[in-house]
Amino acid sequence: MPRGNSFTFLRLAFALAVLFSHSFGLGGFGVDPLLAFSHGQMQIGELAVLGFFVISGFLITASALRQPSIRQFALNRAARIAPGFWAVQLLTVFVLAPAITLARYGHFLDYWGSILVGPNSAWDYLWRNAAFRIVQYPITNLFAHNPLAGAVNGSLWSLGPEVTCYVCLGLATFFGTLRWKYTGPLCFLLFYGFHQLALIRPETGVAVARVMENGFIFGLHQPLYRSVFLAFLAGMACYQFREALRWKGWLAAVAGAALLITCWVGGFDFAWPIAWPYLVLYLAHRLPFERVEKWGDFSYGIYIYAFPIQQCLALAKVQRLGFMAFLGASAILSILAGAASWFLLERCVLRWARTFSERSRGTKPVEVARQLKLLPEES
């Protein structure tokens, strides 16, 4: 693994790609362009989320293998994902929703009266989504009349599978199976076979999903949920076989061509689990944007704040100014929110987690810096 890489740049690009994709539905501008081009097989936002999971599988496998204990691995993962998630949830319930209610009705009575009552109360929104498994998307009728009605933050659906991947990887580390370099490739091949079988015979996917729910792995009856787990396993497999992989331009071109052809003629679900992870990791190794990491990693903040920001813009009828105005306003506000989330919260918590790790191990900061020489901050 080279010292210079563009993982942070790619994560930022993927976050903005999700925002771009959501702009069509949230602004009422029709369907995602890739969805139309691929005849309903894939959206730009979905492909970007799969890219997130490929990078996550690659980097977090590296993190798990170098952590001195499962406790430290769990602390680092919690420090990365939990503060941002809870911040956006609390701000949504106790700042955004009251502000919208005040602007629309002139008083807080309707909102505060709905906090504890009703089928989609604010309390239910916090409580039912507390464990990262998002089962309630609306809060009362907050965005009931938007082009994409109801959902307050549809982007949060992917955090449940992400946390599940962390837990499974932590267990593999605890039991020592992650040290076997074939763990990732074997899990990827088995899950790839299951995914293809479930696409051909959906009843098989439903049956397996019901069994897996007993182990708190949810959503496997849905192709998109299976896809993000598959993308994570692809990243994990690539890290474990990183010494054998070669990042060649002609192979990246073949991967890109395979994605384009299967988008047009069909069979995208067969090709992407192999072609897309290679292309993503090739770009991470070859693109000359390693300096982006010095700015900070705004990608997570952009991802979790963009959806409610776009819903608010749609509520304000900004889409009437046209697609570019809606997209531009969404991007500017989301980048500002992502930067604020990084500098005011995420970076501080990550620094605390590292300091706690250094003190608990009695390791000097210089030694820690040497141990972490090759990778940017994990997603």
UniProtKB/TrEMBL annotation:
Stretches assigned to the Acyltransferase domain: 7-335
One Pfam match: Acyl_transf_3
InterPro entries (UniProt xref): Acyl_transf_3_dom
GO molecular function annotations of the record: acyltransferase activity, transferring groups other than amino-acyl groups
Membrane-spanning parts: 47-65, 85-106, 156-175, 182-200, 220-239, 251-278, 323-345
Keyword Lipoprotein listed: no
Protein name (Swiss-Prot/TrEMBL): Acyltransferase 3
Species of the source: Chthoniobacter flavus Ellin428
